[in-house]
Amino acid sequence: EAQVTQNPRYLITVTGKKLTVTCSQNMNHEYMSWYRQDPGLGLRQIYYSMNVEVTDKGDVPEGYKVSRKEKRNFPLILESPSPNQTSLYFCASSFGQSNSPLHFGNGTRLTVT
Amino acid sequence: GQNIDQPTEMTATEGAIVQINCTYQTSGFNGLFWYQQHAGEAPTFLSYNVLDGLEEKGRFSSFLSRSKGYSYLLLKELQMKDSASYLCAPMDSNYQLIWGAGTKLIIKP
Q: A17 vs B1, which has greater pLDDT?
């Protein structure tokens, strides 16, 4: 089944404790992206990657890191999480062409206390 | 700047028709997507328009007017499962999607 898999689905952590949210897709997509979604706001892009070893900042990259060492994986790293990073996070992928829709993972609900 | 404007919330009756409007301002334009998002779930793709006109796909249709910076999503024969948020997302000249906050659609029996 074609899918984007994110883990974990739920995560509660404390300020400053490094964490990684994994994302993997099995559709051979070139393009991958991370978004956060907060109440009343649209999806905000954190980082994106057009292909292996190519990553770029989105609209809200501060406090996050990513890597794209393999085509299928695009982990999101929070080196020192803070309470303002409490949010719902989505990973998404596509073929990267203008008419290619994004396929989203099921989301990770992160709470930082 | 780049901007999306959609109504925050709409209410409609089961079996009826509803039109969700979206106006946008982007730096360049490479098409517009509509996604459906049920509460707490991932967005799912509904439609893509790049040329002016109406695209029909079952109960859902999407319209685009590039000159007016305007699109709408038309949902017919509404069902309770259509209760969700609907996200309008035009693509700018850098092929980046610009996301609105979405329209929460409430369907009443």
A: A17
